[in-house]
Each structure stands twice: as structure tokens, then as C-alpha cells.
Amino acid sequence: MSFKVVEPAPARLNRSELSVPGSSVKLFEKAAKSEADVIFLDLEDAVAPDDKPQARKNIIQAINEIDWGAKTLSVRINGLDTHFMYRDVIEVLEAAGDRLDLIMIPKVGTAADVYAVDMLVTQIERAKGRRKRIGFELIIETALGMQNIAEIAAASPRNESLHFGVADYAASTKAKTTNIGGPNPLYGVLTDKLDAAARRDFFWGDMWHYAISRLVVTARANGLRAVDGPFGDFKDPDGYNAQANRAAALGCEGKWAIHPSQLALGNAVFSPTEAEVTQARRIIAAMRDAEASGQGAAALDGKLIDYASIRQAEVIVGMAEQIAARAG
What we know:
By secondary structure, the chain is α/β, with parallel strands linked by helices. The protein has helices spanning 28-32, 52-65, 85-95, 111-128, 143-147, 149-153, 166-172, 209-221, 237-250, 263-269, 274-292, 307-327, and strands spanning 16-21, 38-42, 72-76, 102-105, 135-140, 159-164, 188-190, 202-204, 225-228, 254-257, 297-300, 303-306.
């Protein structure tokens, strides 16, 4: 390991993150009783400009009056390029109680964006005597944000997670798509032209692979959670599962849900199976036995395991323990 110690963000379950418009009061109680690990009450894209002041009031009342259980609760503020942002931060933090855990900052483009919100939040916390320090969720959804992602991730000790905002990212990079996430039939390759009569196969690719891979590496290098963003077709559970599985394979620990039907899917994909937890515990036990006999490696089921195997296994066991604690 490097001599540099990376402090991890507070441990939170983040398998599923449900978006709830601040203007849709009727959805608040349903969200509070849902299977979501994290809920973000939205003041940005899901709320029309004329409705934003009332949405703030709705959210403040909901934070103060609704029982959100053990869920992590966040509010997505408007972007720093709007005149809504400062009122979002001030009104919510001054009036909402300590039940709020996080602020989600959209379209983060530079480290200075994070610094600006941090300054405002810090002043409010001190002035109002807030007991709980607010954490930050950061959405990387522009070319500028992706260019500056390393500096953004390290911009504040409040930072907890990086999220991939696929729709705005597509618009920012001028990608040829109108889907919110998912595959693109234009993004693929043909097999080689061996001869005129040979059949050529077309293989689809994942046009978001680079963006998510870079986000995961940057998040982990800074001790943050990596979370995949929305999948727009909520009537396509198989499509959601495919996108969630590839995000999990790359290192994300959760994915957004824009509809309650996606919550169970996300929770299942990003939870270790019973077999995986059992195997992880066996790996840890086998390495402890090897260590006790003075060896730095061991064989388990005909495969080599070493201290790197323990670190992998501990991630799985730690996740299982978090889930069990939430259920209990």
C-alpha cells in the first residue's frame, strides 16, 4: 500500500438510491416506506422552475415530520449556475432538522464548485448550531466535470460519493443518443471482412464504460462511494439489471432508481449472495489459519489465496454485515 492514507467516507448502504421530486408531496410517505437505501428529495431537474420555492417548503416539512426510518436522506439542490441554488442550501439547512444526512450537488464542473457549497454549508452549520455534519454527493454529468474529476473528488472532507449522470453527460459530450442510460445500437463493431461471402457479426459495446470506469477509480482513490446513475426505461427490468450488473462488475456499489420498481432490482444486484458471503468467510478463515502457521498464502478449493484475497473477502463480509444491521 502507498504511504498515503486514504480516509474512507462514512459507511452507508448505497445499493439503491431513489429520486423523489420535491413537488410531488404524495410520493414522500411512499418513499419513506420503500426498500431504498438512500432517498434524494429533488429540487433540480424533476421540479419545474415556478414550482421550486414551494418544493423547498415541501421538502423541509417532509424532513421534519416524516419518519424516514434508517434510510439515508439527501436533497438535490439546483446547480451553481442557477439563482435557485443558494436559497436551496440556506432554506433547507436553516429550517430542516438534523435528520438530513446529505446534499447532492448536480453538474459539478470544478473543485471550486464543491468549495463554494462547502463554505456556505459550513457557515450555516456554525450559525445555526447544527449537530450533524452534512455530507456531499457529487454528480459527474458534464465533460468539464469528467475532465476535473480527480480534483473534484478531493475538494472537500464532506465528499462521500460520486454519481454518474448519464443523460446530461450525453448532452454535454454531444453523444448521439436520447436514451437515459442503456445501450446504443450505433456503438458496436463488425467482425473482420474475411471474404466477400463471409457473414459479418455485429457486437454491441457499452458506450458508458470509460466514464463509469474513470468515476469508480477516482471515487475509490479518494475513499468515496461510486454510484451509477439512472436507467430511464423503468418498464425494462432486464435492461436495468444488465446495466446494474456491469456497474457492479466495474466497482460501483449502487445505482439510482427513478421508479420504485427498480429498487428491489438494485438491492439484489448490489447485495452479495449467501454463497458469496460463505465463500468470503471461508477465505478469511483459511488465511488466518495460514498466518497462524507462518505462511502468507494458502490453497482453498484448489486455488491460491493470499492477503489480497482477504481484502476482497472483507469487502463482501462487510457489506453483508451492513445489510444485516439494516434489516435488524
